[in-house]
Amino acid sequence: MKILFLPLFQMPTGHHSVANAVIRSLENRLPEFEYEIVDFFSYADKLLEKAFRLAYLTWIDHSPQTYVWLYKNFMYPSKSNLHHNLCEYKFLAKMKNLLDTQAPDLVVCTQALPSFLINRLKEYGESTPPVINIYTDFFINKLWGITGIDYHFVPDQMIKEELSGKYDLSPAKIFVTGIPVEECFNPHKIQKSTPPYHIIISGGNAGLGDIEHLIQNIDNDEEYLFAVLCGNNQKLYQEILALEQENIKPLRYISCRETMLNLYQNSDAIITKPGGVTLSEALRMRLPIFVHSALPGQEQVNFEYLAKLGLLDQIDQNKSIIDQLDLFFQDQKRQLLWRTKVEEYLRPIEFTAWQKIIDLLEDSFAENSLLRENTFSSGAVLSRKANDE
């Protein structure tokens, strides 16, 4: 049996992180299955994908307003839906060819464009395997395919209610899984009340967010120790090294899950951009979140959504970072209120993504002859699940 995961670009993104996290969890329970990740944009047009990927980071850094304009006009429907028609013209045949070539038994979309295209194929009467949308931000933009998709894995109960109400979907097809993260990321220790405080500063894999400006407002204070995740930004890494400031340590790109877990477990807060996966990891680890900047588009929407729920705070890069952190760490009531809000937010999560995929597979096998044709039975899966528990 083959499960196909569809992010969009070759570069590391939250869409890839989610796909890889779910695959690793499934491989531990269903090693006999075949799992394939296809970067759809690269599959459809390698040259165009490379050009867009190379231009993307420069674009959002130097001309964020034009990116906001494109994001709003591309991801949200207009009366003409011209942009959707262009997507169909350019990519629809490529998607059909991909599904025909790969012949998967289940498709998991972790990005909107592949979902949109498969949804269109269904609307035009094409037969496709069952499809799952896993949403990787704290909202659902209008490019996602919705009505023709079989199952929806959403970040929280509020988005489930919004999705069900707006599109008249059966709640039985929508599952609150949170944004999937690595299974090893277990809840963080209880917040300590005495220094030194260990703080992660993250700018994503590319080390974005004007971190150079941020660290200029970090005093050399032994009560705060900062680990700066520079990602693949070598310039940032070297600039921080050149500071020779004892309480700021730059870290190169971390690919090892255990190393990242250890960093989380030994930290007391994170200062980050509001990418969906990073926020989900921090929430799951019960790590206080401070946002230093937001890239235009989806990150800004993520920030506004979670800020309304009281799950994160804004850091002013033009003021003393340590003074702002002190306001949190010296206020026990504020810390307790934050922890209460986090637990209230996480409590309604019903399933993990991998658990629900296994449940859906079991239901499918119980309803058709695949039960006898495959290399395992639902009983074997149930046995694995029992062992996991």
Secondary-structure blueprint:
Layout: E1 2-6, H1 14-29, E2 34-37, H2 40-44, H3 46-62, H4 64-75, H5 82-102, E3 106-109, H6 112-123, E4 131-134, E5 151-154, H7 157-167, E6 174-176, E7 197-202, H8 211-215, E8 224-229, H9 234-243, E9 248-251, H10 257-265, E10 269-272, H11 276-284, E11 289-291, H12 298-308, E12 313-314, H13 321-329, H14 332-346, H15 353-367, H16 370-373, H17 378-388
Parallel strand pairs: 1-2, 1-3, 3-4, 4-5, 5-6, 7-8, 7-10, 8-9, 10-11, 11-12
Helix pairs in contact: 1-15, 3-4, 5-6
Description of the structure:
The chain has 389 residues and is an alpha/beta fold. The chain folds into two domains: 216 residues, Rossmann fold (3-Layer(aba) Sandwich), CATH 3.40.50.2000; 150 residues, Rossmann fold. Helices cover 49% and strands 13% of the residues. It contains 17 helices and twelve strands. The strands form two sheets. Strands 2-1-3-4-5-6 form a six-stranded parallel β-sheet, with helices on both faces. It has a six-stranded parallel β-sheet with strand order 9-8-7-10-11-12. The radius of gyration is 22 Å and the shape is globular. The C terminus is likely disordered.
